[in-house]
Amino acid sequence: MDKLTVLWQSTALAHFQGGQLIMMAVGLLLLYLAIVKKFEPLLLLPIGFGAILTNIPLAGFSEAGGILYYIYKVGIDTGVFPLLIFMGVGAMTDFGALIANPKMLLLGAAAQFGIFATLFGAILLNLVPGFEFTLTDASAIAIIGGADGPTAIFLASRLAPELLGAIAVAAYSYMALVPIIQPPIMKALTNEDERKIEMAQLRVVSRREKIIFPLAVLLLTILFLPAATPLVGMFCLGNLMKECGVVDRLSHTAQNELINIVTIFLGLAVGSKLSADQFLSVKTLGILALGAVAFSIGTAAGVIMAKIMSRFSQQPINPLVGAAGVSAVPMAARVVNKVGLEANPHNFLLMHAMGPNVAGVLGSAVAAGILLALVG
Amino acid sequence: MDSSVHQLLVEAGTLLLVGMSFVFVFLTILIAAVHGITLFCKRFPEPATPHPSSAVPVVSQQNDAGQPSPQVVAAITAAIHQYRQTK
């Protein structure tokens, strides 16, 4: 009988807690969203699986000695994984559309309003009983409005590691929901005629301009915002490797093998943060709600800025491209293109939207640097 | 409690103003920088590099009469034969 009790005690069945079961269900939900709904599957699949692993009783995946514990320590606690991803994203980014029409940087700046407005909203939420966000918590949550996964994870790991799981899940879920969240806001803020505006074709950008651009961005960041240099520096390194044309092997690795390997580990490490005691709290609901607000405000600010610019600019600007100012590359640009085509079947806005889109990546990296410098 | 929230709100408001202005100033400077790069590249255009492929002599696969050489004909015949065999 004794032996039977020992055997029973060594099964998971005897040790399951309600919270762990709920979190495993959340993990399964993420797997479902990744596999069936194809929501950011590259990240949600390892995150969902990591969530299941970390909640297995007795296995101790996320305690000292467990594999997820070490993956998190090595990759996210140090900030290494999101930065490596950012290098890969840099190696995949083409700044041609932005260099051809640099005014679009203003749209990337305007869309960051979502971040800072949400910061305000997160603090306001403290008036509701049950919420106690500090300024650092609020900053980490607000960066969801930047719609940039690696930036959000990097900032959360610096400012509020205990909220990282919820922040990462919210950031990637909303990025997957861009085609659903953005169009109603874009349509509400523009009229039919504005959506029909066709934009002048972009000029061809020389290779030399594309090589100097990342160096110029880096130089400005070094001078004015050293706190953002980890993000911007790795991004510019990746971009320079792509554009210089002499290290194709490195550029290829950064945008394929390396980013794929890091994505697997990043997903697992984020999943390890989805443990019952950290995730099952009213704070998570607040983070999910604030994330959606951040995203919507960012989109709206971008569109409004584009409307203002089109009023003062000699060249026509379709206000829809402002919505691409929240990064979410390239999904946001595709959404702009789709909404534009609905109004005018001959209007292809994709290349025009890529400008604000990559400007949004720079903008959210700069915003993250500001938050790190002022709050961190 | 209320006074601390009030203080946090003031801080968040300041961050909102400072943050947005800095993002705008930074990216505006970047716009100027991009214009500078464009001007620089227009003033000092890339030197026209000679096309490397033109330097490599093209090995002629034809004889003087404009007909394919016997070796080429033999190779093609063998390839067709082999292809039909495997089919």
From TrEMBL, chain A:
<feature type="transmembrane region" description="Helical">
    <location>
        <begin position="12"/>
        <end position="35"/>
    </location>
</feature>
<keyword id="KW-1133">Transmembrane helix</keyword>
<feature type="transmembrane region" description="Helical">
    <location>
        <begin position="104"/>
        <end position="126"/>
    </location>
</feature>
<feature type="transmembrane region" description="Helical">
    <location>
        <begin position="211"/>
        <end position="237"/>
    </location>
</feature>
<dbReference type="InterPro" id="IPR005661">
    <property type="entry name" value="OadB_MmdB"/>
</dbReference>
<keyword id="KW-1278">Translocase</keyword>
<feature type="transmembrane region" description="Helical">
    <location>
        <begin position="282"/>
        <end position="305"/>
    </location>
</feature>
<feature type="transmembrane region" description="Helical">
    <location>
        <begin position="67"/>
        <end position="92"/>
    </location>
</feature>
<feature type="transmembrane region" description="Helical">
    <location>
        <begin position="163"/>
        <end position="181"/>
    </location>
</feature>
<comment type="subunit">
    <text>Heterotrimer of an alpha, a beta and a gamma subunit.</text>
</comment>
<keyword id="KW-1003">Cell membrane</keyword>
<protein>
    <recommendedName>
        <fullName>Oxaloacetate decarboxylase beta chain</fullName>
        <ecNumber>7.2.4.2</ecNumber>
    </recommendedName>
</protein>
<feature type="transmembrane region" description="Helical">
    <location>
        <begin position="42"/>
        <end position="61"/>
    </location>
</feature>
<keyword id="KW-0812">Transmembrane</keyword>
<keyword id="KW-0739">Sodium transport</keyword>
<keyword id="KW-0813">Transport</keyword>
<feature type="transmembrane region" description="Helical">
    <location>
        <begin position="356"/>
        <end position="375"/>
    </location>
</feature>
<comment type="similarity">
    <text>Belongs to the GcdB/MmdB/OadB family.</text>
</comment>
<keyword id="KW-0472">Membrane</keyword>
<dbReference type="Pfam" id="PF03977">
    <property type="entry name" value="OAD_beta"/>
</dbReference>
<feature type="transmembrane region" description="Helical">
    <location>
        <begin position="258"/>
        <end position="276"/>
    </location>
</feature>
<comment type="function">
    <text>Catalyzes the decarboxylation of oxaloacetate coupled to Na(+) translocation.</text>
</comment>
From TrEMBL, chain B:
<keyword id="KW-0406">Ion transport</keyword>
<comment type="similarity">
    <text>Belongs to the OadG family.</text>
</comment>
<keyword id="KW-0472">Membrane</keyword>
<keyword id="KW-0812">Transmembrane</keyword>
<dbReference type="InterPro" id="IPR023424">
    <property type="entry name" value="OadG"/>
</dbReference>
<protein>
    <recommendedName>
        <fullName>Probable oxaloacetate decarboxylase gamma chain</fullName>
        <ecNumber>7.2.4.2</ecNumber>
    </recommendedName>
</protein>
<comment type="subunit">
    <text>Heterotrimer of an alpha, a beta and a gamma subunit.</text>
</comment>
<keyword id="KW-0813">Transport</keyword>
<keyword id="KW-1003">Cell membrane</keyword>
<keyword id="KW-1278">Translocase</keyword>
<comment type="function">
    <text>Catalyzes the decarboxylation of oxaloacetate coupled to Na(+) translocation.</text>
</comment>
<feature type="transmembrane region" description="Helical">
    <location>
        <begin position="12"/>
        <end position="34"/>
    </location>
</feature>
<keyword id="KW-0739">Sodium transport</keyword>
<dbReference type="InterPro" id="IPR005899">
    <property type="entry name" value="Na_pump_deCOase"/>
</dbReference>
<keyword id="KW-1133">Transmembrane helix</keyword>
<keyword id="KW-0915">Sodium</keyword>
<dbReference type="Pfam" id="PF04277">
    <property type="entry name" value="OAD_gamma"/>
</dbReference>
